[in-house]
Amino acid sequence: MEKTNQSLNQSTDAKPKRIRSLDALRGFDMVWILGAEGLFLALFLITGWSVFNVADQQMQHSQWHGFTMYDLIFPLFIFLAGVSLGLAAKNINVYSQQQRSEKYRHAFKRLGLLFLLGIVYNHGWGGGIPADFESIRYVSVLGRIGLAWFVAAMVVWHFANKYQALVTLGILLSYWLILAFVSIGNFGGGNFGPDFSINAWFDQTFLYGIRYQNLAVDPEGILSNLGSIVNCLLGVFAGRMLKQLQSTPSKLIIQWVIAGIVSVALALALHPIMPINKTLWTPTFVLLTSGLSILFLTLFYWLVDVLNWQRLPQFFIVIGMNSIVIYLATSIVKWQYIVDSLFGGVLASLSTPWQSLLSVICLVAVQWLFLAWLYKHKIFIKI
Question: CB-hemisphere CA count at 13 Å for 68?
Answer without folding.
Answer: 14
